[in-house]
Design a protein that fits this description.
- This protein has six helices and seven strands; from the N terminus they run E-H-E-E-H-E-H-E-H-E-H-H-E.
- The chain has 228 residues and is α/β, with parallel strands linked by helices.
- It has a single domain, classed as NAD(P)-binding Rossmann-like Domain (Rossmann fold, 3-Layer(aba) Sandwich).
- The protein has a seven-stranded parallel β-sheet, sandwiched between helices.
């Protein structure tokens, strides 16, 4: 029987790199994204903020590929916005994609993991959940809430054989990265003097999935030294 992983935000950037890394480890990978996800074994169009749509998608994945043993929640939404301009709509959308997307997918896959006594969940957070910056308050808040959820759920289900952890990347060369974080001045301020690569973040995820059996509620932060 194949080992089945679900990756949200699988169409591009870090999510697509995670798909490739899990494939290299022999996983069968289903991708959830608003856009088509190349390279997956089963790709489904899904808004992760819609709990019913997520449940239906996970049900189809289990029927077509097999029980879901790993979930990687990488779906993202980003905008640069001073706090005075954060409307209710902007606030709710940011939280519903990041925190809501994680919660919705966990709700869909966790019962099966608990029944089998085995499973892994990895949430893709951000170094801004650890050290915030200006004009990204709603993004930082959403990512920070993900870490609280991961730590609490990790403690709750560890003795049932389910491992819940997070990766909090720093500035990574993806389409979501804003232009100010690509300038020579910004890169010179990073201890590593460069952006991270999606494949590097994917290696941290693969470690937690394939080797990190001793990790529970942990946060790995490959962030180019942006937060030390």
């Amino acid at each position: 029987m194949p080992r089945v992983a679900v990756v949200t935000g699988a169409a591009s950037g870090i999510g697509a790199a995670i798909v490739a890394a899990l494939h290299e480890s022999g996983w069968t990978v289903a991708g959830l994204d608003l856009q088509p996800s190349p390279g997956v074994d089963l790709g489904l169009a899904c808004d992760v903020s819609d709990a019913d749509a997520v449940a239906a998608a996970v049900g189809r994945i289990a029927a077509e590929l097999g029980p879901v043993e790993t979930l990687v929640s990488a779906a993202g939404h980003y905008e640069y916005c001073p706090v005075a301009n954060i409307t209710d709509e902007r606030w709710n959308r940011m939280l519903s994609v990041h925190l809501g997307g994680l919660v919705n997918t966990v709700r869909a896959v966790l019962p099966g993991m608990l029944d089998r006594g085995d499973g892994a969940v990895v949430a893709i957070a951000s170094e801004l959940a650890i050290g915030g910056t200006d004009s990204e308050a709603h993004y930082s808040a959403a990512k920070g809430a993900m870490l609280g959820f991961v730590r609490s759920l990790g403690a709750e289900v560890a003795d049932a054989g389910v491992r819940v952890n997070a990766v909090a990347p720093g500035p990574t060369d993806t389409p979501l990265l804003p232009a100010p974080q690509r300038t020579p001045e910004y890169l010179a301020a990073l201890p590593a003097r460069r952006l991270g690569r999606p494949d590097e973040i994917a290696q941290a995820v693969r470690f937690l999935v394939d080797e990190g059996g001793f990790c529970c509620g942990e946060v790995l932060s490959p962030n180019m030294g942006a937060v030390i």
